[in-house]
Design brief:
The chain is an alpha/beta fold and 301 residues long. It has helices spanning 13-22, 34-43, 54-57, 69-82, 101-115, 127-137, 166-181, 194-200, 224-227, 245-261, 268-271, 277-288; strands at residues 26-30, 47-50, 87-91, 119-121, 142-147, 186-190, 208-211, 219-222. An eight-stranded parallel barrel has the order 1-2-3-4-5-6-7-8, surrounded by five helices. The structure holds 3-methyl-2-oxobutanoic acid.
Amino acid sequence: MSSPPREQRPITLLKLAEKRALGEPIVMVTAYDHPSAAIVEDAGVDVVLVGDSAANNVLGYRDTVPITMDEILMLARAVRRGLKTPLMVGDLPFGSYEASNEQAIETAHRFVKEAGVDAVKLEGGGQMAQRARAIVEAGTPVMGHVGLTPQTASALGGFKAQGRTAEAAAKLTEEALALQAVGCFAIVFEAIPSAVTEALMPKLEIPVIGIGAGPATDGQVLVLHDLLGVYAGHKPKFVKRYADIRGESLKGLRAYADDVRAGRFPNEEEHTYSIPPEELEEFARYLEDEALVGTDTPWDW
Ligand code: KIV
């Protein structure tokens, strides 16, 4: 099997803009820990998002809302240690940037200083475009995110596609253009009809990365756990499974359990350490030495 083409030099914002201009699709994926980071690095992806989707994918929360800055920072630091090449983006958690420009700048700076991210992502347009502007002006690149924005999914009527009426598509357009105008270097389009995306693309000059937004975008992003099949159960319409990690893991664990229960593991020749016979004999004599057996017990239970 041939290995994927590798971009050896770190991916920069300029490189992403170049890719867009050349029509080279941008590949983005989430990662939340060090082993995943090492794998996505080797796979040659362009952008890695430490997504707030870590909340449900690795921390066991019901949705993305509860994850805190301290939790995502710990995950992001582990990812940072595994990445050399892709651009690393940290997702600002719900409640960490909405209240004021000052709060947004402070949170973005924490992400950069404490986890070494190259950029941050925030959800929504409107007032959030002002937060994006403040963060950009304070020195941190920002990726926008419009369409289905999971942090505010209940206000959007649930986890469903957005921009399915002319009015809703126009609102989405305004949000995307506002994010572009305030200096975002890229925008995620989530769960948007592909015809709306296609119609909107000529209006945008920055890379658009789609998730459930059709093929017209400049790149695609998927959640690592979705594309690798880490979980059984509901699969969003826009997810394509490229592996069955859960199935493979179950097979491996069941085989291990069977081997332990049947006494096949560990195997004396393959999985154990040896000791020279004379050392073993001496040790046996030591164990037989009566003076050692049942001597003063220091504890009084
Ligand atoms: O947190 C996340 O995984 C995301 C992607 C869906 C873009 O925001």
